[in-house]
Amino acid sequence: MLQRNHFKQLNPIFLLLCLVMTAFVSLTCSASPQQVSQELVYVRHGHRISYSQNKKIKENYRKTTRHKENPFDEPLTQKGKEEIKQTVIKLLEKIDINKYDYIYSSPMTRCLDTSQIISNEIYKITGRKLKIRVEYGLAESSIYYRLFIPNFSKENLTINYPGEYYDGAIFDSVIDKKLYFENIIKRYKDIDKNYISYTTDNKIHKDADDVVRSLVGTIKRITGENGNILISGHGAGPYLHTHLYLTQEKYSPVKQIKLSISSSGSKTTSFVSIFRKKPKQDWENIFPPKRLIESSVSEKLKINENF
């Protein structure tokens, strides 16, 4: 009888403890996304036509209608496509792809080609399908070259970037009608048709500051959605500003040069860079720009540089 009374006295306390523990577990499991670590994987597009060492291939591409329409919008070479496939295999060893839902892509053909290959390969390997969200703010602009190349002008473009290939042309907007969203969805099967880009497809940038504002606004938006992010983008300017915005590192010419060298040119195509944000902390670049595959992979696989 005493034991039964003793149990009755303890029972309310026991119930209260249960309620407290239940509430604690509930709060922990339903923590807001801001309290969970977030990752951003930045993949640069693969090897493109202007990086080919074969003059014949470049000459043939110069004759195409697409080159005449927009010489800044290049496709990947066969070498570039194969390297992206190999990069995906290595990338899946570094990240949990089940925690990623979308690929955010620049609208340039080389990046969309890269995004579609990434989506295809992830599906083949894991059975998981990632939709592609087109973000015009991630596009590479010719204004970036004026911003980062000393004495940039029409006269010396042919010397500085990227060789004689662009015939000295300067474009304030590299987005032509074929890169408008309505046409992109006709060419790529995994585009998220319901997604609306932060920057419109027909926006004309006024100056370099406007370009950077569009990029930073885009990065701010997609990181604000709190999920893990996979970006298919460009090296040099776009990557540099993404890095500086995320990490909030103090800008310096030395840092600009270091980041530009590590993320631009033919030797850094298909590089991967990983950022992580812990709760209440700034983003950290935990994996600086680096190719995940050996430079000789194309030679071993006998992949050519044609388009």
Unreliable stretches, pLDDT < 50, 5 or more residues? Answer: 1-8, 27-34, 146-171
Overall number of domains: 1
3D shape = globular
- CATH names the topology as Rossmann fold
If you compute it from the alpha carbons, what radius of gyration comes out, rounded to the nearest whole angstrom? 24 Å
Terminal Cα separation, in Å? 89 Å
Using the 3D structure, state the CATH architecture: 3-Layer(aba) Sandwich
User: Mind telling me the CATH class?
Assistant: Alpha Beta
| DSSP E strands, number | 6
Name the beta content range: 5-15%
Q: What's the arrangement of strands in the largest beta sheet? A: 3-2-4-1-5-6
Mean pLDDT: 81
Total helical elements: 12
**Major sheet characteristics:** 6 strands, mixed
The class by helix and strand makeup works out as alpha/beta
List keywords for this structure.
about 300 residues; alpha/beta; Rossmann fold; six-stranded mixed beta sheet; about 45% helix; about 15% strand; globular; disordered N terminus
Describe this structure in words.
- By secondary structure, the chain is an alpha/beta fold.
- The chain has one domain (38-301): Rossmann fold.
- A hairpin with a 5-residue loop joins strand 5 (271-277) and strand 6.
- The chain is globular.
- Helices cover 44% and strands 13% of the residues.
- It has 12 helices and 6 strands.
- A 6-stranded mixed β-sheet has the order 3-2-4-1-5-6.
- The longest helix has 28 residues, at 2-29.
- Helix 4 (78-91) crosses helix 5 (109-126) and helix 10 crosses helix 11 (253-263).
- The chain has helices at residues 2-29, 55-62, 65-69, 78-91, 109-126, 142-148, 157-160, 181-187, 208-223, 236-247, 253-263, 297-301; strands at residues 38-44, 100-105, 131-134, 228-233, 271-277, 283-291.
